[in-house]
Amino acid sequence: MTAPTTAPTTAPTSIGSEPGSGSGSGQLTVGVVGLGYLGAVHAACMADLGHRVIGYDVDAAKVEALREARAPFFEPGLEDLLARTHGEGLAFTTDVSDLQGADVVFVCVGTPQRPGELAADTQYVTAAVQALAQVLPGTAVIVGKSTVPVGTAADLAQTLSATDLEVAWNPEFLREGHAVADTLTPDRLVFGVVSTRAETLLRRVYARAIATGTPVIVTDRPTAELVKVAANAFLATKISFINAIAEVCDAAGADVTTLADAIGHDDRIGRKFLGAGLGFGGGCLPKDIRAFTARATELGAGQAVGFLTEVDAINLRRRAKVVELARAAVGGDLAGARVAVLGAAFKPLSDDVRDSPALDVAARLRAEGAHVTVTDPAAVDNARRQHPELDYAPTAQQASAGADVVLLLTEWEEYRSIDPAALAAVVRHPRVIDARNALDAQRWAAAGWDHRGLGRPSPAATATGAASPVHAAAA
Ligand code: UGA
Questions:
Q1: Residue at 1 is within a domain
Q2: β 450-452/391-392 pair status
């Protein structure tokens, strides 16, 4: 956590210069370490809750943007929140010693997958805690929000045993694209603590949400750490479950979207996260299920989560399936084919391309010799940095000009509502692969498109009754 060479151009406001300055009132002095998708939103939301906040990051450009109330990434509502809290007790710094007056410091740094391994890399969490130990008064509580292998909090606490500092864990459940609402009005709060001191402090931090009835689960630190990974593992499993069923639907000529609607009516199952298609990506679910597998194995419980290896495999098969469909659509050879890719972000309402299924598919098509033009309402700059070999266009119409096949890979609302007749006018061949099952298949077919979803028969096959291999075999 060394500070970058660039010095802050604006001194942080004198927030929290008195250690423990928030004690006794509703307002606390809150530090936030790491100003990425999680930390920047958390800092702004803490200020909105009425606390004095100082956000710290080693990235001077990010800090500078936040100081000017500019969001360093795409997150709906964040800029409004920054504007609202600007000068109202929200400050940003690249100097960790500016956190010295904090009552509580949230650690929001990344825990990426270690290169070549399944396990998470916790070095940034460790470095953050070590840096904080140098500057915080003993009265402060360090609260981890990052997703970590179970046991991390206890290990960190051990390194602080010579101090009075305490470590608690308060996992984050926010979704990118909905991060502000998820932070201000969470559906639950989990406090992993070893003392009432940390619990009391966390109850003061989140007093507004608690007053409106948000459930609070107070538990030990390992349970809190595991709650987070278990939640993400469950969500990933639910998505891969429906994608596995989609594979069977494809083989049987059945429709996975109707099936998901039908089973989703059972409230024990629920329709959410049964969206079959290209599968999950992003900076969380893929690496979290792998890190969970690695940690459980270290603990001798690897067999218990062996199914997560299959969850991962089902998910990755979706990408290969879409490439296969694209290849088949252009006659078996992608070399020289023109492919339009709608969507680069790992999901709509985000500019995040970390482990993006859409971008992965686009890169695979390019590797097979296709001319791939990608468009996305928010993620083109990030995508271009990761994949400069791809072509990019500002709109779906421009990306699709002369295309042999159009792939919908991220279901942004503006792609869902495309006029299929207008798009048909610019392509070379009206073929669409709807890898998120987000388009109205009948409408696209009526506009002359050869529409192909995932785990569902094409409208043409349904119309001729040729959809089902089961029926075909019986005939
Ligand atoms: C996920 C969790 O949903 C959050 O609760 C958690 O806090 C966060 O990870 C985290 O660990 O920080 P997020 O990565 O923002 O949030 O995205 P999700 O909305 O969970 O979507 C993940 C992926 O699953 C996306 O690629 C999405 O396209 C895919 N997905 C989602 C499907 O393929 N089908 C679905 O039905 C739903």
A1: no
A2: unpaired
